[in-house]
Amino acid sequence: MGMDRRAFLHATAAMAAFGGAGASLAQTPQGGAVRIDAAGLKPKADSILDSGVTSGDVPGVVAAATDRDGLIYQGAFGSRVLGTGSMMTTDTVFWIASMTKAVTGMAAMQLVEQGRLSLDDPAGKILPALAEVQVLDGWDGDTPRLRAPKRPVTLRHLLTHTAGFSYSLWNPDIGKFEKVRNLPDIVTCKNDALKTPLVADPGEAWNYGINIDFAGKMVEAVSGMRLGEYMAKNMFGPMGMNSTGFRITPDMRARLAKVHQRSDAGKLAPIDLELPQDPEFEMGGGGLYSTAGDYLAFVRMMLNEGKVNGNQVLKPQTVAEMSRNSMGNIKVTMLKTAVPSATNDAEFFPGMPKNWSLSFMINEQEAPTGRSPGSLAWAGLANTYYWIDQKKGVGGVYLSQILPFADAKALPHFYAFEKAVYQALA
């Protein structure tokens, strides 16, 4: 997920208003050190985030940044639910939507490490449904023309979004297929939502879709656990992510922010959007609820070659494999909206070439924010964002709860926040 060109230009202009300086030292992979002026970062970041609330651009926001050693900034501003007295706090719980994808990718890669999953064997050996999937080759009226794919779907295809699956949010053919076949939307977490066809042959194009949901089901198939149970035991517990899960515990619910919808007139109002709490399947592509602090533990793990909270949860070579292009010459493309109420046209850094690793988008050039070439990033539908810069040893998250995605008013504050973090590096 990303941003449209109008929002990007707005964000670039907003970033120019903020400056920065260099107390903690973050080691780079090359062995150098980056000095971080955390004390200087705080007033600038606070000002950026507070301005988003006071201007009415966002109802509330929590943002945080980390280096390899630990937290360098956190801030919470505004309201969890507009029209109530519930204020944002740094431990507020958010629906992080597609920020879930990288976490599910980590689960799959743990099992690849163990030899229980293969990146390049036919995934249909694990999930028979993937051996039967077909390609949508056009329409005869309301009747879809389907054919067999040229090659089997693999876990590598799923993790890089090159399997051929797509979301109805950005592909009207999938929306039409769901309608004529009476299939539920993916956010229902019903198994029938996964019965859509491919829109391209595996390995031939980047199409953003339900790929990681199948990766999550592969984790379940070989582990014998539900996805959330696997993650709690093998990831969240060891990583100290105690407020993350597919199910909202009573403690998490007491800190939960609501999703808000922006009207055509620009007005924000809370809506009743919550994922099923007793789902048919736990949605590895977008079902997690989490906090800024918890997700920073995941970011820090990727900055520290798989080690966080004193535990080695991924091998260094696995982190390296997850951090490089894994789809050859294929490029990430703009997501053109098919459902404007849910998402705008979306692309990070329009015009900049981007590829995909085993779980993350990679920018191939330095971003206007200061993000290094080769950094890892993605986002969630309700305007949640993160980035991981292994070269400079920093990363961060920005969490709001707004639809549609790639919101033109919220995004400038995220980019200004990221810029401020880089300006605090010396």
- Which series of helices and strands comes N to C? HEEHEEEHHEEHHHHHEEEHEEHEEEEEEH
CATH fold category name of the domain at 5-92 and 259-275 and 288-423: Beta-lactamase
Kindly report the spatial arrangement of strands forming the biggest sheet.
Answer: 4-3-17-16-15-14-13
CATH class of the domain at 5-92 and 259-275 and 288-423: Alpha Beta
End-to-end C-alpha gap: 30 Å
Mean pLDDT: 93
The CATH superfamily of the domain at 5-92 and 259-275 and 288-423 turns out to be: DD-peptidase/beta-lactamase superfamily
Report low-confidence residues grouped into runs of 5 or more.
1-25, 28-32
Class computed from helices, strands and strand pairing: alpha+beta
Q: Assign the CATH architecture of the domain at 5-92 and 259-275 and 288-423.
A: 3-Layer(aba) Sandwich
- DSSP helix count? 12
The largest sheet is: 7 strands, antiparallel
Helix content, binned percent: 25-40%
Rg over CA atoms, rounded to whole Å, is: 20 Å
Strand residues, percent = 15-25%
Number of strands: 18
Q: Which outline best applies?
A: globular
Q: Features of this protein?
A:
single chain; 426 residues; alpha+beta; Beta-lactamase; 3-stranded mixed β-sheet; 12 helices; disordered N terminus
Commentary on this structure:
This protein has helices spanning 5-15, 38-54, 100-113, 128-132, 155-160, 172-180, 211-223, 227-239, 250-253, 292-303, 316-322, 411-423; strands at 24-27, 33-36, 60-67, 71-78, 94-95, 135-140, 143-147, 260-262, 268-270, 289-290, 307-308, 311-312, 354-356, 361-363, 376-380, 384-389, 394-399, 402-403. The protein has twelve helices and 18 strands. The longest helix is centred in the first third of the chain and has 17 residues, at 38-54. The protein has a domain at 5-92 and 259-275 and 288-423: Beta-lactamase, CATH 3.40.710.10. Helix 1 packs parallel to helix 12, helix 2 packs antiparallel against helix 12 and helix 3 (100-113) packs across helix 7 (211-223). The protein is of the alpha+beta class and 426 residues long. It has a seven-stranded antiparallel β-sheet, with helices on both faces. Helices cover 29% and strands 17% of the residues. The relative contact order is 0.21. It is globular, with a radius of gyration of 20 Å. Strand 11 (307-308) and strand 12 form a beta hairpin.
